Each structure stands twice: as structure tokens, then as C-alpha cells.
Amino acid sequence: MNVAHRKHRAAAIFAILLCTVVARAQETPESKLPEVDLTWAVKIPMRDGVKLNATVYKPQGMKEPLPVIFTLTPYISDSYHDRAMYFAQHGYVYALVDVRGRGNSEGNFEPFANEACDGADVVEWLAKQPWSNGKVAMWGGSYAGFDQWATLKEFPPHLVTIVPAAAAHAAVDFPFQSGVFFTYDMQWLTFTSGVTPNTQLFGEFSFWTDRFWDYYSQHLPFADLAKLTGNPSTAFGLWLKHPTEDAYWDAMSPTPADYKRINIPILTITGDYDGDQRGALTYYRRHMKYGTAEAKAEHYLIIGPWDHAGTRTPKREVDGLVFGSASMLDLNQLHREWYDWTMKGGPKPQFLKQRVAYYVPGAEDWKYAPSFDAISNSTRRLYLHSENSEANDVFHSGTLTEAKPAEEAPDHYVYDPLDTRPGELERKEISNAITDETHAMNLFGDGVVYHTEPFAEATEISGDAKLVVWLSMDVPDTDLGVELYEIMPNGTSIALTYDLMRARYRDSQTEPKLVKPGEVTRYEFTGFQWFSRRIAKGSRLRLIFFSPNSLRWEKNYNSGGAVADESGKVARTAHIT
């Protein structure tokens, strides 16, 4: 099949990407922009005596104190130099601050653990400087988006606004999703190990692919991945001791009571293809659930047709999909207009016509809604069918129709965790040895496939998918995945959304419960990536339900034990009905 976009398995693992590609200010020739003064190695004291390192950018010749914007980053402050220059050239003081234990900051780096208190201390220190007028805001995405929410939950008095883009949410989209860890975790931990950038090693994909292949093909325990990659990371071992959304992770994010206290304007930015969309929308949805009416009225949301990096620097093309010119939002300018509004009394950005703005690929235009729930105006319910239990590949698939099932035999598939053929195919895809994504499930029978009839008219679908299935299996645990595609009339496949579940977490993300083999049980998939798309006339939807067997995921060997410690020695083949 001709694939225009294969986002989901790849996007999910790159939940917290280094994004050093940044946009330079372009609306004014650089020769006409104001000059900037730089103060290097500014030391900011934390409450425990540790000093964080900052580089401070100020408009040259500033005649009075100004509002301050800062980024708190583990990626070394130099990564965001261009952003700092842009805002300093447009009337703000900008501070680039290394998190503790990274760059020239003191202390030890424990991912996610110290940013809340440190961020609050940075806010209050910046507010008291002679070049500050006491108003402080934050900028950043991914980990720096997480930092904004972590800082906000401490409620530093001088924090005026946050603009979290692609904000990672610990235990929601990183370092695991639905209880399933990523092999990428070790790649990211190696990138942020020590105090200096490890950019070259982080980007050496052949090395990482080989190490992940060794783990996968030799059926080693996931816990061995640190040793395999040559990095005895203490953080990795600590994470594996907390495979659920427990108190360790909860301490890093706002509580319901925190959301209720929020009283500053917020602009949340994410994308259809953002690997941290789950995190960004979890913060947003929880604020909408627990926040006050006054605060929610000043929380705006933008969902563009962007991948993770595109939530700060949009590009028209994402993995083969090309979007219209309207998708190229100038996010530097939008941030500046937002800061002007919230910190200088300027007008609200014209782009924010309503509280929610979302781009509709296929229609190639922005649409607006007064609330997130108001985007969707109806729900379509489709049922799974098959003839003679034949639904195991795209050529012998089941159907998705509005007709309720009658007396039909169930569908089946087999997941053998010792089968390495899917990983072999995946390895070739990663190395660009093949360009066609013939889904491994279609070759090796580890899933089921269903298609709708062709759409009679072009139809916009914007919102959340949900899947309810009744399953039985002959093992105490396994992993389950579901993907939804648009199949265009010419056969092009466009990924729309996906979800993942570890069976032991079917009822609760905090209290695992093993499956009783042979028992028919209801599984509800509600964690799909939000998406918007105008489905073309003549296109069909394709639903694929499978058990992940991938280089990119922690492998479940189906024995029911601690998955990180399982190996091929305890593997059990799962027969799914």
C-alpha cells in the first residue's frame, strides 16, 4: 500500500524530543532589529542553596524595567538562543535557565523531580531584579512545557502567564503510556546524562536501532536496556520501579485542588501529530474539569496540523502529508502578541477568535469553537463484523457498519512474543531499506482489520475516538493496540489516531489486575490521540486491532509477572478472541 503518513508508533516514542531547530525573527530585517545586551553566567539561588545558571538577554538601551520571559530547560540554554534574541528584540528581558544538574547549573539532574520548586524560585528571583517590572512569564515546549505546569502548581506570586506547547505529562505520555515503557527512554536519558549536550550521540539512530534490536531479538528483559546501551542510568531504574501513575509521578503535576486555584491566562498549544499531545490535553482537560469558570475563560487552546517540533516551528509537510499555507502560523509572533496582551495591556491576539482553534487537514483551514466539547456536534457508532471469522489482513478484512451484530462467529488472532519478523520489518523501515509500510500485522497474523464502506461525501471528523471490545485470551496479560486510518480511493493510507493498553490496566491505571484466562471481558479504549480531518469522498476508514510487537516498546511476554523483568524464557503465546 502507498503510505503518505505513518505517525503513531514513531510519534508516540518521541514524546520528549530535543528541538534545536528554531525560527529566527523574520518580519523585520535583522539589520533593523534592536541590539541586545547579554549577561552570561547569572547565578540564581534556589531555596536549598543550589544555584541555577542563566543567560540573560536584554534590549540594549532599555530605559525602564520590563516584563521577563524565561525558559527552564535540560537541553542547555544555548539551544534556545534564537528565541531569546527574538523576544529581547521585541521588548522583553529573556532568561535561558539550565535545570539543576545540566549545563552550568549546580546540583544533580533527576528528570521531572525538581522543576516545580526550582521554577517557582526562578520566577520570584527574576521578579526582584532591577531590570524586571515584576511580571514574569514562561516559554517552551516538550520538557519545557512540562516545566511551565510544574512551576504553576507552586503558584509563585509573580507568574503572570504560561504558554505550554507540546507539554509532556509524567506517567501519561512519558516515560510510559498506559503502563508500557518506550525503548526511546534510554535514548533520551543518555542525551540528558551528565552536564553537557550529547546531541551527536542522541541523533546516532543506527546505534540506537542496533541496541533496540539487540534487546528485542535476544528476548532480553527490558530492565537490561540500560546496560545494553552503555549507560547505567539511575533514573531508568527508578522509573521501572514506578510503572503506574503512583505518588512518585503525581507529585510532579497539578492536583485537582491546584487546578481549582489557577487564576492566570494560559495558552496551550499542541498538534494532531504531536507525540506529547496526550500530555498537553491532559493538563487542558483537567483544568477544564476542576478549574473555576473565570480561569477557564482565559485558557485558550490551539491544535495545529503539526508534529512535536512543529508546535514551535510549524512546517507544511509532516511525514509525507502536505498542508495548506494557513497551517504556517507564525508562533513567535503569536507568543509575542499573547505576552503583549497579558503583560503589557495590549490587544488580545487576533488569531484567538474563540477559546479553541483547530486546523482541519483536508479542508486546509482553521476552525473555532467556544469550548473543546463544542467541536463535535454528533457521534457516529460503528460495529465490527466479519464473515467466517475472516478479518486478519487488509485483503480479507471485516467491516465497520452502523448495523448491530447478529449471530456472528468471533474473530481471532495470535500474538507470539518470540516472533521477531515484525521487528525485522520495522528495522528495515527505520533504516529506510524499504519505503512501503506494509503493516507487520498484515504479514504475520497478529491482529484483525476492519473497513467502512467508502464515504459518499467528504466528511469532517474532529474529536475523540473510542473503542469498546469484548475479548477473551488464554494468558494473564498482554498488550493491545488499535490504529485508525483513512484509506483514500487511490490506496494511500493516512494515519488518524491510535491507542494502547496493557491488559492488566484495563480497569485502572493505578491498580493492575491480571486477566482470568478464558473469561470474556470488556475493554474500553479511551486514550486515542485527538484528531481532525476532512475525509475525502470515496475514502474508507480502516481499523486495525493488534498486539504490539515492536522495537520501540517494552515487550510484554504475557506471563503476568513484572514486565520489565520478563524475558523470552517465560514467554507465552497469546490467543486472542
Please explain how this structure is put together.
By secondary structure, the protein is an alpha/beta fold. Helices cover 23% and strands 26% of the residues. The strands form 9 sheets. The chain has a 7-stranded mixed β-sheet with strand order 1-25-24-28-21-19-18, with no helix packed on it. It is globular and about 80 Å long. The two termini are 27 Å apart. Residues 1-29 and 433-444 have low confidence and may be disordered.
What is the overall pLDDT average? Answer: 92
Helix content: 10-25%
The strands making up the biggest β-sheet line up spatially as: 1-25-24-28-21-19-18
Form type: globular
- Radius of gyration over alpha carbons? 24 Å
| Class based on secondary structure composition and strand pairing | alpha/beta
Q: How many strand segments? A: 29
Q: Beta fraction of the residues?
A: 25-35%
Largest sheet: 7 strands, mixed
Assembly level? single chain
Uncertain ranges: 1-29, 433-444
End-to-end span in angstroms?
A: 27 Å
What's the number of helices?
Answer: 16
